[in-house]
Every structure is written in C-alpha cells, then in structure tokens.
Amino acid sequence: MLLSVHxxxxxxxxxxxxxxxxxxxxFFSNAGVSxxxxxxxxxxxYFADKEHLLRYGxxxxxDVYYCLPYGPVPSVALNEMSDASENPEVEDSDRxxxxxxxxxxxxxxxxxxxxxxxxxxxxxxxxxELEVLGNVVRNYGWRSxxxxxNLTHSEPAWKIPNQGRIPDGRARIPYELFFFDADAETLxxxxxxxxxxEEGCELDAILNQKTHQLFV
Length: 216
Hints:
Blueprint lengths: L17 H13 L7 H19 L8 E4 L2 E4 H12 L6 H9 E4 L7 E4 L10 H14 L4 H8 L3 H7 L8 E3 L10 H31 L2
Antiparallel strand pairs: 1-2, 1-5, 3-4
C-alpha cells in the first residue's frame, strides 16, 4: 500500500535525547560493531529509528533527519558526534556524557572511531528499543560505512527528498517517508505517531498561550 501524505505532521521538533545517542554508541561498540565512525553511526541510527518507528510508532533518538549526499542523517546526533570528536576540550553537559562513556580513537582509521569505556545503561532504553538496537547490530553492524551509504540511497526516505535537493545542499526528511510503501498493518503505527504529535502540538499551543498571558 502506498503511503498517503495528505495529512502532514504539524511543525513540531521532536525532543532529542542525547543520553540515547551516547548509550546507543556504547551499545554498538560493545556489541562488536567495527569502525564505528560518525558516518557509520548515522546510518545505524537511521535503520534503528526506522524499525522502531514502523513497529512501535516512535523513533528512538527523537532527531530531525535530513537528506544529504551520503544518505539520511540525524542532524542533531551528527552535530553532537562531531563536537565530541573534534572539540573534546569544550565543556558542556553532552560532551561530559560522551567522555564518561566513550573514547574517540584517532589516527588508526582515516576518521575518528567511537569506543565504549563501559557498559551502556539499560535503564536509558525501553525493552523494544534494546530489541531494535540488537537487530540493527546483527543486520547492519558488520557492514562498512560505504555499504550502508549505498543501502540508504535505495531508501524512499532518501530518494524522494533527494530529487529536490540542490547540489551540496540538504532537504528535510519528514518521518512519514519512513512509512513509504508500508503495508496497512504498519501504517497503523503512522496514525499512532501522528496522533501523539497532534496532541503535542495542542499542548504546545496551550502552554504558549499561557506563557504569553503571563507577560501581557
């Protein structure tokens, strides 16, 4: 069944979860994923978010995805990984979380590699999230970053927005596109996802109105 996108999501940014980013990287590293660069991690996050969204009605990271030349990218996660690997001396809460759980190995590979220092905190994830992360390790963790880029280039979530992307630019990937060509049973999860976000939009509007009234 083709996805109908006549009901777009309201323009509300999901709540990004930095602790899930860090502990997912730890999970991948401890599970034996080789050459865990930020490019490879970005592709693993895409497959993890897609599987969890289609099966349970919500992504894991809560990130904003963009279509870029190397495939779909979780934008906040990519920025966080770049900051952790390129500017480790800068102090902030997210960087400190990275330092507690991850080393950034440079010089061995052309690109920095994330290595776990300790076990991930299982309380950060739901049972379904841990299940999906394990599936992603088994299905994709052994592949190279280049292989994963090629795989994501066959994904409608990348191919469709890429048609309108300017050279060297980026295009937003709405989460509806993760459901492209999904069957009727899976599309039920899209309705769940939309309903939760419509409720969130209504709550945001109420809170914004009350905040405005306080300052009028």
